[in-house]
Amino acid sequence: MRFALFTAILIAFCSAGSWAENTGDIRKKAESGDAAAQFELAQYYESEAGKTRSDRRALRDQKRAFDWYSRSAEQGFARAQFELGGLYILGEGVEKDEAQGVEWLMKAAEQGLADAQFEIGNLYLAGANLEQDAELGLDMLTKAANQRHVPAQKQLGTMYFQGVGVAKGLVQAHLWFSVAALNEDQAAQGYLSTLESIMDEAQIDEARALAAQWQADYMGE
Questions:
Q1: Cβ-contact 87, 101 below 8 angstroms
Q2: Which residues does 126 contact at the CB level (< 8 Å), separation at least 6?
Q3: Closest by alpha carbon to 117, among 128, 105, 126, 129?
Q4: Considering only the top CATH level, what class is 1-147?
Q5: How far apart are alpha carbons 183 and 192 in whole angstroms?
Q6: Tens digits of per-residue pLDDT, 165-205?
Q7: Is 102:61 a contact under the CB 8 Å cutoff?
Q8: Exposed (0-12), middle (13-18) or buried (19+): which is 96, by Cβ within 10 Å?
Q9: CA of residue 210 relative to chain centroid, distance
Q10: What whole-number distance in Å separates Cα of residue 45 and Cα of residue 115?
Q11: Which residues contact 86 (CB under 8 A, 6 or more apart)?
Q12: In angstroms, rounded to a whole number, what is the distance separating the alpha carbons of residues 144 and 60?
């Protein structure tokens, strides 16, 4: 499967200087079983693998990243589960195993990690390594969107606008593009302008009321 939807998210935990200052403490915590420290150590090695020009060194660092992600993920650290899933799917630092990768993404999604919910939602919609299920796909995307995951919000807006995977609904499309636009997303703002040019005043008012309620429910505003 070409996992085009998966976006590898590297959190640049520390620069070379700050890593040098913290390496002893972080490594000590990681080796003692601290899941967060294990994740941080994996991030460091993955970052290093991307910097080196040596294929041998890059492979070594990728394998080290895989090892520390695995240790953290086995302890239930959701972000590590997500990253580990990506390594399996892409075959980086480990033999490619898409089914195993999806299992780890699912574990992270079940813990409420928005990035994982977004990926799993798309896999359900596409029927890729999961049985196609539009309802589950929509549910996962909505869960991610309600955590302010902008790509999920924009995708829901597009789905409702085009009627792909869901019944076409301009009010729902306006809702999701509105909340995405709160992050100053230019694409979402462009879609809003297009929508409002084809919606009547009553539809726009309804959509804006839904967006205001969403903000109250999920942003405390």
A1: yes
A2: 5, 132
A3: 105
A4: mainly alpha
A5: 13
A6: 999 999 999 999 999 999 889 999 999 999 999 999 999 99
A7: no
A8: middle
A9: 25
A10: 21
A11: 6, 8, 92, 101, 105
A12: 34
Q: Which two tokens stand for residue 163?
A: 């009627």
Dihedral angle sign, alpha carbons of residues 108, 183, 6, 51: negative
69 neighbors 39 (Cβ within 8 angstroms): yes
Non-local CB neighbours of 1 within 8 Å, separated by 6+ positions: 89, 98, 128, 129
Report the interhelical angle of 170-181 vs 201-218 (nearest 10°).
50
pLDDT tens, residue by residue, 40-59: 999 999 888 777 666 788 88
| C-beta contacts of 212-217 below 8 A and 24+ residues apart | 214/146, 214/175, 214/179, 215/179, 215/182
Q: Which residue has the tokens 């070594």?
A: 60
Give the single-character DSSP code of 165. S
Q: What is the pLDDT of residues 91-118, one digit of tens each?
A: 999 999 999 999 999 999 999 999 999 9
Residues 185 and 213: beta-carbon distance below 8 Å: no
Structure token pair of residue 206 = 């309804």
Residue type, 204: I
Domain coordinates of the chain in residue numbers?
1-147, 150-221
In contact, 159 and 135? CB cutoff 8 Å: no
